[in-house]
Amino acid sequence: MSQTYPSQLEIAPLTKPVSATVSVPGSKSITNRALVLAALASCDTNCTLTGALQSEDTEVMVEGLNRLGYQVQANWPRVVVDYVGKTLVPNTTADLFVANSGTTMRFLTALCAAGKGRYRLDGIPRMRERPIEDLLCALRECGVRAESETGNGCPPVVLDTNGLSSAGASIKAGTSSQFLSALLMVAPYFNRAATTSFRITIDGPLVSEPYVRMTEAMMAAWGISWEFDEATRSYTFDADSAPQHETSEYAIEPDASAASYFWAVAAITGGRVTVRGLNRTSLQGDVRFVEVLQQMGCRVEECDEGTTVHGGPLRGVDVDMNDISDTVMTLGAVALFAEGPTTIRNVGHIRHKETDRIAALATELRKFGAEVEERADGLTIVPKPLAGAAIDTYNDHRMAMSLALVGLKVPGVVIRNPGCVAKTYPGFWQDLDLLCE
Q1: What's the total number of domains in the chain?
Q2: Tell me, what CATH number does 118's domain have?
Q3: Which of 30, 269, 347, 435 has its CA 20 to 30 A from that of 115?
């Protein structure tokens, strides 16, 4: 991926409400899960992914898998993962760089634990501040030597492994559901040569639960079976239930988190935006962002083509966004144009994302003139007369894309480091321009 971005970008206000139908690229969350599942299945078969997202996060995943010895050919948006033979992780050593991709760090850490050898995973300075100890603890329960190199519970991660030597593990997923998803995808392959079942038990609260449901649905598509016990909150993978790989081609949905920006454009401008290929049956929980917009006064329609949001007079809401936390910043932008305060609750875990998203959002919304009360697990936004401002993005793609939307109504909004969108949506600025023509 090669694209040039300016050091800062001024957003041009619109002169009329938007009326458009748009397509957004493939889901980053689904693409990176599909890449891991296809790589694991490549010990039996090959797989072609269609509609895959090309972005920094997915490119570092492809590079990491190739460094581990898998044969991944990316001709975006088509990606082919070739058969590599019966060895679960082909290479016995690898030094992997994941930039600031949380899915790549967490998923490949679990994948490497299934190998036999020594592996090291590292990323940019912010990745070295993002927690992973809960996943490492679970892997140690499985008999793997899995350590934070600096001892602070964050990357770099070093793994010395000979595969699993236990019947299961408990895992905490109160900081990130990716820890659980990572272990779930790899567990059936840990267990292929075992004579006993393998069990994963959830210990404590679970954040962003729809992403776990996404992982489960994709595992089922790859022929993986398990039993879940509600009482013990445990997944059991039987010793005699090896994955039945019937998936030779897998189509990746459009990205619902990316769609949220365009639905928000309709809300902010009082216009109409249809996003193709997404509705309430999507694997992605973030499609529920349209329900929040509906609570705020928008009208939502579904049809065969996709989901349409019609803007209207907006009112503030009080909403628990734990399940759709990647859209918190999008709601923050919309809230500036509502009548009355908007309160966002139960999202303390987003302080551990690409930046501390609660603190960063509060700081930048205040620059526009809003009154913001920051709390440990959320914030309350009280709209005030708005003014343009130079917005810092903290190298966080979602800060850039969400807060740029304010500039569609407020003159003088400048986004610093707009190139950070390359993490998940390299063509965002071009698509926004097309939408607003």
Answers
A1: 2
A2: 3.65.10.10
A3: 30
Residue 174 to residue 348: CA distance in whole angstroms: 10
The yes-or-no verdict on residue 38 having pLDDT over 90 is: yes
Cα gap 293→27, rounded to integer Å = 21
At 242 the pLDDT is 65
Instruction: From 251, 270, 295, give the residue that closes a domain.
Output: 251
Q: Which helix (DSSP H) or strand (DSSP E) does residue 290 occupy?
A: helix 289-296
Question: Nearest to residue 339, comparing CAs of 314, 312, 317?
Answer: 314
Q: How far is the first Cα of the chain from the last one, in angstroms, to the nearest whole number?
A: 26
Number of H helices, E strands in the chain: 12, 23
- Cα separation, 382 vs 360, whole angstroms: 16
**304 and 413 housed in the same domain:** yes
- Provide the edge-to-edge strand list for the sheet that holds 227-229: 168-173, 198-206, 234-237, 227-229
Same domain as 333, residue 304: yes
Q: How many CB atoms lie within 10 A of CB 303?
A: 9
From the CB of residue 85, how many other CB atoms can be counted at a distance below 10 Å?
A: 10
Range of the domain at 225: 28-251
Q: 354 and 411: one domain?
A: yes
> pLDDT, tens digit, for every residue of 276-319?
999 989 999 999 999 999 999 999 999 889 999 999 999 999 99
240 catalytic, yes or no?
no
Let me know whether 154 and 58 are in one domain. Answer: yes
User: Average model confidence (pLDDT) for the chain?
Assistant: 94
Domain for residue 2, yes or no? no
Tracing tokens 């850490």 back to the chain, one arrives at: 109
Which entry of 326, 392, 396, 431 is annotated as an active-site residue? 326
User: What pLDDT is recorded for position 240?
Assistant: 66
Residue 193 has pLDDT above 60, yes or no: no
Asked if 309 contacts 293 with a C-beta cutoff of 8 angstroms, the reply is yes
